[in-house]
């Protein structure tokens, strides 16, 4: 029996290999007796608030919530999303056609290209960027056109640098701020430019706003839908995973252009039947509580950021302080490749991080730390890394 025959070639284009590799390195480090500090995967270490968990517990006892939920999201969920989006960003939505429930934003991002493009089309993606963007294109047979993001430009793309002949083939352009992995943020004037470009070029603008509630120093990340007329060309993805620590519950939503959302809904109607209604009830509670008695996640991560960046500086590794997201995007000291540094650091110190190369060609030269541990663990991680850097020196060449 040829088991290789049961594997499609497109799996090789998904680019997720490095994440499983890091999981293997962690297992080896644990087997070698190391206390592993997991700053690799951005999975929140805190639970949702008690109010959210209570609503989930109550809802799970209601027999009528065990029917197939339907792809759209319950009317109550869609209404609450529209209320929250208006409360948070001042943008008005029709809950019928301009809100769609998702099994996490990953679901929407992974399926979008299949819903709105044809094989042979092209799409603009950030480089570096979150890997599912690329995976979604690979599955749909769509060509990736990378938009280079560099520190010099604050990790914002240069729309003017994209030639006309590329724009002619592009179906959608994907942006995400606060950004994973670069931790950069974008203000409303950037989104005004992006909407204007999308209108001029006739492309769909897709904004992944998974970190909308995670920003520091008083910055409140905007929604692309705050730009007047954005709904003509834009959709936005939101996640309850980071904003409300509900990553394991798998719920998010897409809002904005009704035609693009119809396409995504039509595809998903053939693939899944929506999010467990009890989970939708918990999400309603999360959004409701956020409007009535907010318990924002930003300050928690801001304290962690301050602790980690200061301790790393003391350890000899200067990292520009992130302004949003849950990540620190750390320039590799010395001549290591990002992969060799992440691997050796994990083997020697037990601190797990993701090599920047996992996020695209321009991620090389960086390592991504997720601030998903309490402050004392982050300081401990930095202290161990400091000893490691002193032993190996930034000049070590691999
Ligand atoms: C930028 C970005 N978008 C989307 C997601 C997926 O989130 P969800 O849990 O909503 O599927 C993540 C998760 O890490 C992310 O970093």
Which architecture name of the largest domain does CATH use?
Answer: 3-Layer(aba) Sandwich
Bound small molecules, which ones? pyridoxal-5'-phosphate
Strand content: 5-15%
- What's the CATH class of the largest domain, please? Alpha Beta
Number of strands: 12
Distance between the amino and carboxyl termini: 41 Å
Major sheet description:
7 strands, mixed
- CATH fold label of the largest domain: Aspartate Aminotransferase, domain 2
What count of domains describes the coordinates? 2
Query: How would you name the CATH homologous superfamily of the largest domain?
Result: Type I PLP-dependent aspartate aminotransferase-like (Major domain)
Total helical elements: 13
Instruction: Assign an overall shape.
Output: globular
Question: Taking all residues together, what is the mean pLDDT?
Answer: 95
pLDDT under 50 segments (min length 5)? none
Spatial sequence of strands, sheet with the most strands: 2-8-7-6-5-3-4
Order of helices and strands, N to C? HEHHEHEHEHEHEEHEHHHEHEEEH
Structural class: alpha/beta
Query: How helix-rich are the residues, as a percent range?
Result: 40-55%
Radius of gyration: 21 Å
Polypeptide structure, described:
- By secondary structure, this protein is of the alpha/beta class.
- The chain folds into 2 domains: 3-47 and 297-392, Aspartate Aminotransferase, domain 1 (Alpha-Beta Complex), CATH 3.90.1150; 50-292, 3-Layer(aba) Sandwich (Aspartate Aminotransferase, domain 2).
- Helix content is 40%, strand content 14%.
- The chain is built from 13 helices and 12 strands.
- The chain has a 7-stranded mixed β-sheet with strand order 2-8-7-6-5-3-4, sandwiched between helices.
- Helix 7 links the parallel strand 5 (170-175) and strand 6 (204-208).
- The protein is globular.
- The model has no long low-confidence stretch (mean pLDDT 95).
- The chain binds pyridoxal-5'-phosphate.
- Pyridoxal-5'-phosphate binds at residues 42, 104-106, 130, 176, 180, 208, 210, 239, 241, 247, 252.
